[in-house]
Automatic annotation (TrEMBL):
Residues 315-334 have a biased composition (Polar residues). InterPro entries: SAM-dependent_MTases_sf, TRM61_C, tRNA_MeTrfase_Gcd14. GO terms for cellular component: tRNA (m1A) methyltransferase complex. Residues 274-334 are annotated as: Disordered. This is tRNA (Adenine-58-N(1)-) methyltransferase. Residues 296-309 have a biased composition (Basic and acidic residues). Keywords: Methyltransferase, S-adenosyl-L-methionine, Transferase, tRNA processing.
Length: 334
């Protein structure tokens, strides 16, 4: 009798039960922890330095078994978890790794039924996590500028779920030019210049919605955060990174592992205020020189009520393209 939990065409979880089937991905792991991703095909052989492994030995058999190569070496065969699949999938663009994917899903509060906009789709690693989180009653709209990357993402996402996910729409093009959605719950940006999307994201997001960005460098981080502040209708941005370190545990030999997942990117989240409502200003003074003569980034406009009370506060701004510039003397914020 079929396992009633295994209906990938209806549940779209990417999780399968029962015997291994042709077309499924499996992970083979040797005794040293080296992993190989294999797509099962009848009649095929996976070749290793220790001999081949016939796919037919695994097809129609159970998950989580030990199989021997022709050279007598044992391999653990398992269906991959989503984290395993995301780091081993074919790539166009670099993938967002599981440690950051988990942070995005949790800290951006991706929930079942949510309407989420994503840019760009990359290789589809984050997309699979977003789709699993929103479920078939939600919606994920992914924008990818490059058609070749979009095709890689489509194949990877479809390969994970086993079919086209009904909650997913993939658009080839620039989010700034093509986004015309309203009442969006979450916007997730993984791109070189996420600050270019702030105004469009603000128009699409519902009040209280979350804007989340994944940026690799400190200069990207600074410009995006300051652009959010200059916009004025987002809460104070929160920026952080996550570092993951394994531990070696054998009896009394307990120590940090020799490898760790260090810096991959910074994450930034902020919530959309109601339209026309300015967020409260940050009360803590910036570090001396943070907005001094050398600073040429975005600046938040000074409300008139504060200007009359605090004459030495930051100057007002005029927007010039995507980089606002100060109209008054430079502020040192000392």
């Amino acid at each position: 009798m079929a396992d009633l939990r295994d209906f990938p065409d209806q549940a779209y979880s990417g999780v399968h039960h029962g015997p291994l089937q042709e077309g499924e991905w499996i992970t083979l792991q040797d005794s040293k922890g080296r992993r190989h991703s294999v797509n099962l095909e009848r009649g095929k052989i996976f070749h290793t330095t220790k001999g081949g492994i016939e796919h037919d030995q695994l097809i129609d058999g159970p998950d989580a078994v030990v199989i021997r190569s022709k050279g007598g070496v044992e391999y653990l065969a398992l269906r991959p978890l989503m984290a395993d699949y995301s780091v081993s999938m074919p790539r166009g663009a670099a993938v967002i790794y599981p440690k950051d994917t988990a942070q995005i899903v949790t800290m951006a509060d991706i929930f079942p039924g949510a309407k989420v906009v994503e840019a760009g789709a990359g290789s589809g690693a984050l997309t699979t996590a977003l789709l699993r989180a929103v479920g078939i009653n939600g919606q994920v709209i992914s924008f990818e500028r490059r058609e070749d990357f979009a095709e890689v993402a489509r194949k990877n996402v479809t390969g994970f779920f086993g079919a086209e996910h009904p909650a997913w729409r993939l658009e080839v093009g620039d989010l700034v030019e093509k986004l015309n959605e309203q009442d969006v719950d979450r916007v997730v940006l993984d791109m070189l210049a996420p600050w270019e999307c702030v105004d469009v994201a603000a128009e699409a997001l519902s009040p209280g919605g979350v804007l989340c960005a994944y940026v690799a460098t400190t200069t990207q981080l600074s410009r995006f955060v300051e652009t959010l502040r200059a916009h004025g209708e987002f809460t104070e941005p929160r920026a952080w990174e996550s570092l993951v370190r394994d531990w070696h545990v054998e009896g009394l030999a307990v120590r940090p592992g020799h490898r760790m997942q260090g810096h991959t990117a910074f994450l930034v989240t902020a919530r959309r205020m109601a339209h026309g409502v300015q967020a409260p200003r940050k009360k803590r003074r910036p570090a001396p020189g943070a907005y001094g003569d050398d600073y040429a980034g975005p600046r938040r406009a000074e409300p008139s009520t504060e200007r009359s009370v605090e004459p030495s506060a930051e100057p007002s701004v005029q927007s010039s393209g995507d980089m606002p510039t100060a109209t008054g003397p430079s502020a040192t914020d000392t």
